[in-house]
UniProtKB/TrEMBL annotation:
NCBIfam families: PRK05122.1, PRK12382.1. It is found in: Cell inner membrane. Pfam families: MFS_1. Residues 199-389 form the Major facilitator superfamily (MFS) profile domain. Gene3D superfamilies: MFS general substrate transporter like domains. This is Uncharacterized MFS-type transporter GCM10007898_37520. Keywords: Cell inner membrane, Cell membrane, Membrane, Transmembrane, Transmembrane helix, Transport. Its main location: membrane. It is a multi-pass membrane protein. Belongs to the major facilitator superfamily. YhhS family. The chain crosses the membrane at residues 7-29, 35-53, 74-91, 97-124, 136-156, 162-184, 205-232, 238-256, 268-288, 294-315, 327-350, 356-375. It comes from the Bacteria.
Length: 389
């Protein structure tokens, strides 16, 4: 639907700018500013901290002031991030100032990610109706990962040909072009109802968020350790495994998104998590690069629908006027999983091996299957009670 595409386009733009910096920023801080790998990693990580902390606020903004306002706030923060990156590139003779500007740019971009990511989904649901929630969430995910995949090589090309300043300049330009387009797009009608207490919304969404976190650990381990995993075995083409994972992930989102409203989020989540666990086990047992690639493909196939399947059930647990807050809380759990996967996987690899990382991640996916089964039973019980009431 054009209404969905015109809304998730804002998500695509923001994640495209996030992708610009992924492959370039660490080298700029490490080599150009001579601050070393540790501060280079910190410059990247600070964005995710900002995203994590601002997710709930973005959800409340979408509920209280409308998703259009949340998206426009995020686009404004994205423009500010681009301006700060441009300034950072122009003051490299004062390294501490350049690094400080980069940190503030990353903080602004993290807030932009949470505002636009949450606001675009809520806006899309308001445009096409909550019966299409699964499709909105699925297409928003396609926009997210597609933009990251396109943004990283484009950022490398920009840096190589025009320098780091071009990344800041293009980020600023894209945000300034997109802001008027968001302003022209029709806002959704706000539900005239008292907002549900945030604690109540969080309590209802939390079990589904825990399921999402357990299922996301495998993705986090693949994204973080697949290169080291291949290197430890002397295999080539680690990047190919990531490409396979991403390609299958996006393809499944496009082809199978309609299975969620047809069969229900719980069932799709359980099947998806089971398939993901199988893929992670294949990775754990891989004895060659081809087998590892197959494992990555199976894991990508399984993980693809976990977020929208559990997300549909999560937002249905709260009133319509609180679904922005629900999405904000729900998304936090994936942020937490991605943050935890690194140190947890590193600890497992240090004590055992890189193969063992994927074995433990498969156990987390199996635990998520059990949790989804419990949540389905609980939802069915509540429906029966409501029918007899």
């Amino acid at each position: 639907m054009l209404s969905i595409l015109s809304t998730v386009a804002f998500t695509f733009m923001v994640y495209l700018t996030i992708g610009f910096s992924l492959a370039v920023l660490p080298g700029f801080v490490d080599i150009k500013l001579s601050y070393g790998a540790m501060l280079a990693g910190l410059a990247i990580s600070v964005q995710y901290v900002a995203t994590l902390l601002s997710r709930p606020h973005a959800g409340r903004m979408a509920d209280a002031r409308g998703p259009k306002r949340a998206v426009m706030t995020g686009l404004t923060m994205c423009a500010a991030s681009g301006l700060l990156l441009l300034l950072a590139a122009l003051v490299t003779r004062t390294p501490w100032l350049s690094l400080g500007l980069i940190v503030f740019a990353r903080l602004a971009l993290g807030c932009a990610e949470s505002c636009v990511g949450t606001g675009a989904i809520a806006w899309g649901m308001g445009q096409v109706g909550h019966q299409h929630t699964a499709r909105v969430i699925s297409w928003n995910g396609v926009a997210t990962y597609g933009a990251l995949a396109a943004g990283a090589p484009l950022g490398v090309l920009l840096d190589h040909r025009f320098g780091f300043a071009a990344i800041g300049a293009l980020t600023l330009l894209l945000a300034l072009i997109t802001l008027p387009l968001a302003q022209l797009k029709r806002a959704t009608i706000m539900a005239a109802a008292e907002r549900s207490p945030f604690r109540m919304v969080a309590a209802r969404v939390m079990p589904y968020g825990i399921g999402l976190a357990l299922g996301s650990i495998g993705f986090g381990c693949i994204a973080t350790f697949i290169t080291l995993f291949y290197a430890a075995h002397g295999w080539a083409n680690a990047a190919l495994a990531l490409t396979i994972f991403g390609t299958v992930f996006v393809g499944v989102r496009f082809i199978f998104a309609r299975t969620i409203p047809r069969f229900g989020g719980h069932r799709v989540a359980m099947l998806s998590l089971s398939v993901e666990a199988i893929g992670l086990i294949v990775l754990c047992l891989a004895s060659g690069a081809m087998m590892a690639g197959i494992g990555a493909a199976i894991a990508g196939f399984g993980f693809s629908l976990v977020f929208p399947a559990l997300g549909v059930e999560a937002v249905h647990r709260v009133p319509a006027h609180s679904r922005g807050s629900a999405l904000g809380v729900y998304s936090v759990f994936m942020d937490v999983a991605m943050a935890v996967a690194g140190p947890l996987g590193g600890w497992v690899a240090g004590g055992m091996s890189y193969n063992a990382i994927y074995g433990f991640a498969s156990l987390a996916a199996v635990a998520a299957v059990v949790l989804a089964l419990v949540l389905q039973a609980q939802a069915m019980k509540e429906r029966r009670q409501a029918t007899h009431a």
